[in-house]
């Protein structure tokens, strides 16, 4: 690929959580960034060339991809409300790959989801299928797979934060014991930016583990402890994830359609196969969960919006009532993680 200062990079999904964090990182590297928006592109700037394009309309793609050296595919239809969003995603990915080939794009970078240790939910199956479609195209595709991304603005983080702060005690549905390896948005952005320069003879796929492997229950306990409260556990498991999503609808402000899809994906462990991408890309080890969560909490507290105002009120409530909710042992010390068993947390496996 061309030297960084002579490279044009397209970011689809640039108005989303990950894309919005990636664009300034690419600009800081000296890339020329083109970004897509389904509407209102003409009103945007920020040193970016904005193009109005809907990836579901193949006719929009040639103009967006013209003169592009590398392209990020960061769109998904989980929150669209369409029952057939999985098929729409696959069609959009196939059309994007074909148009990228015609435009002479040298590589596609795709952010997908970690493959579960059992049958995937509809959402995860769609994420994996999109990766397969892109990797089977004529343009080499580097697929990076993450499980929970920790950062202010992430839907999965918002659910975790709301549960850890708002619950007086924690019910334990079966999926609360599912294990995952949350990764900080800062590390995801570094991984995506570095993907432009990772040697790529053909399409490839790597997982993006965070610094810790934790059960969902432990994640909630850690977040609660970082906010100075305990989260007593009540062992009254809800039978299946589909039922507990109705309960979550009452607790979290996150888009319930997204919450439902995310929780249905927690029936099995979401563990990365290995962490070799960090070495291949020349990146430092990823942040541990506590540090990632601290940064996300700090992002939630930033003034200038409803989220910041709500957070301030919630913090006052926690400070007033949290001591009454302690279970006699006090809060877990922030930063302390459960003792790891001997050997690697996630046994390396071949790809």
UniProtKB/TrEMBL annotation:
Pfam families found in the cross-reference section: NAD_binding_10 (PF13460)
Residue stretches of biased makeup (Pro residues): 339-351
Domain NAD(P)-binding: 13-114
UniProt region (Disordered), positions on chain: 324-351
Name this polypeptide is given: NADH-binding protein
Bias type Basic and acidic residues, positions: 324-336
Organism: Anaeromyxobacter oryzae
InterPro entries: ComplexI_NDUFA9_subunit, NAD(P)-bd_dom, NAD(P)-bd_dom_sf
